[in-house]
Every structure is written in structure tokens, then in C-alpha cells.
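Q: Hi! First time doing this. I have a protein sequence and I read that you can turn it into a structure. Is that right? Here it is:
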Amino acid sequence: MGTVKQLYGGSIDFFRRGFGGSVAVTALTLAGLILLSFAGSMLFPQQADGIVEQFAQMLLQKGAVDESGQIVFSALLMNNLIAMMTCIAYGLLPFIRLSALTLGVNGASLGLFAGYYIHKGIPLWKYLVGILPHGVFELTALVLAVSAGLYLCGEGSAALLQKKTGAVRAAAGQCGQIMLLWILPLLLAAAAIETYLTPVLLQAVL
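A: Yes, that's right. Below is the predicted 3D structure, encoded as C-alpha cells:
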């Protein structure tokens, strides 16, 4: 128990030393991307709907949904875990902020899907009922993963320029703690809600 408290204490201290500010900027950027893509979907509905339908097919092929259309908890959790770990791992490539691409894709898809539902005559609040319960946890995990990836990239880039490789090891350790202590519990909660609660809520409102 003491070790866990120490780990969380060190992680919170990491947030206070500047990582928390990066997380806030990433969250605001995500919100801006969602709004911009939603506006784009309203201005160019046909093109946006085509993108959404292709994206939906891609999601089905990932195996998180069974043949009856039901979400599989373990598959969903594994897909999300791999996505977040990959996002952080992008940070190992110096100078190329690939983690930002993950933020862009997710932000754009959320905004486009909102527009798609409106084009199909489904009120926006119903879309939010299907997204927000699990999205609060999943999007928080996404913001943390992107922030960690960008932090790791920044530290790696600076280390190469200054020839201080030890900083990369320390940064990787911090990002690993973020993944284990914060992102993993958030993804567990998100997957449970999306699997067991969201379908019930959607059935009640659609």
C-alpha cells in the first residue's frame, strides 16, 4: 500500500512540475478539433458522411464487436490499450510529434460523427448520451497518452541535441507510470461502461 501511495505521489508531483499544463493544452486542442470537424461536417455533409461510413467499417474490422453487433469487453479494452501504448511509443521518435496525429484523428472523428447523426435526423443530445458516459474516461486517457507521447518526444529531442541520453530513460519511466497508474484504470472504466451501460442508455433513447 505504501509503495502505491508513493507511486501516485510521485506521479502527482510530475503533474505539478509542468506535465499538468501540457495535459490542459492537449485537452483544449482536442476540444477545438472536435468543434472544427463538427463545423466541417455541417458545411460539407456528403463528404463528411462518406468519411464517417469508412471509419465505421474500420472500427468493425478491429474485432471489438461480435457477429450480433454486441461490444466485446476484452477486445475493446485491448484495442484501446494498444492504441494508447502506441500513442506514447510514438514519442520515442525524436523531432516527429506523431502522438499529435492520434489526437487529430480522434478529435476529427468525434466531430464528424456528431454531424453524421444530425444529418440522419438524430438529435445531438442522443449522440452525446452514447458518447459521454464512457467518453469522459476514454478521452481523459487519450489526452494523457498524447501528452505523455509529446513529452517523451520533447525529452528525446532535447537529449539528442544536448547528448544527454539519461533524460530519455527518466522520461520513459514517467510515461510508463502515467500509463499504469492513470490511463489503464481509465480505460478499464471506459470499456466497462461502453460494454454494459452505453447500450442500455442508447436503447432507452433511440
